[in-house]
Amino acid sequence: MPQFCSAYSCLNLRTVDVRDRGITFHKFPKDKERRKRWEIALRRDGFTASDSSVLCSEHFKTEDFDKTGQIVRLRADVMPSIFSFPVHLQRVGALLKVH
Ligand SMILES: [Zn+2]
């Protein structure tokens, strides 16, 4: 059973096909504080990461990665920051214009 990326509305599966597109998968931090921050960043109601939960590389900035080794790693203390949220989860001021 391939693993899904945990991000909202992301359909990337941990498969060879996806890996061939240059997408890598990264586990949540073991550190509780950092893991919590990642969970909050995902903005998924009631979501709790498990030890096998993963995020794909599409939610991180290019500079978040350490590509010097054979395995692509995330740098220490990076946060996932790129998501496509549905409108109701986006922080926009546009609502103020609606009467
Ligand atoms: Zn993803």
Automatic annotation (TrEMBL):
The portions of this protein that span the membrane are none
| Top-level division of the source organism's lineage | Eukaryota
Which keywords does this chain's UniProt record carry? DNA-binding, Metal-binding, Zinc, Zinc-finger
Among the GO molecular function terms of this UniProt record, one is: zinc ion binding
The record places domain THAP-type at 1-83
Q: InterPro entries under this entry?
A: THAP2 (IPR026521), THAP_Znf (IPR006612), THAP_Znf_sf (IPR038441)
Which Pfam families does this one have? THAP
Mind telling me what this protein is named? THAP-type domain-containing protein
Protein's organism: Xiphophorus maculatus (Southern platyfish)
